[in-house]
Amino acid sequence: MNAALLHIPKGMIKWPLFIANYEHSTAICGYSDDENLLRLQRALKGAALEAVGPLLYLPSGLQEAIATLKLRFGRPEVIVEGLIEKVRRMPVPRADRLETLAEFGFAVRNMCATIRAAGLPEYTCNVVLLKELVAKLPSVACIEWARHRRQLSSITLTEFGDGWVT
Fold this sequence. Notes:
By secondary structure, the protein is mainly α. The protein has helices at about 10-30, 35-45, 45-50, 60-75, 75-90, 100-115, 125-135, 140-150, 155-165. It folds into 2 domains: about 15-75, no CATH class; about 75-160. The two termini are about 35 Å apart. Pfam families: DUF1759.
């Protein structure tokens, strides 16, 4: 388990990978509560460690620590909102640097994929966010998006993510 895997603020986004690895490795390797306690003591950092630190003193606190981490970092809406903020904070893509357009497009696609995986389709209908993301695009990409948008019956973040990044 990566020692920095659950470090906040990125920890919210990395939670699904962290808990899947934790549960899978526990099942495959047959880790005991004592072993898992040691693993968590080494893996947790920042806000994650602060949230459950005292629960990691004894193996009897392990299940409560996992439940607390799931409640704090494993809520789908918290994960999605973290990704939305990450996309909002991304630098404005530049038309003269195609890699910035690609990075932005893939970040939007990944955000939409996480929204679908989290079972929160209502987040794809965020008109304010869609306008913010379109406003970040260079004018050439805005024109391409406007042309593509006219062909769509509905316009969501998913169509935006799929529509202009090829």
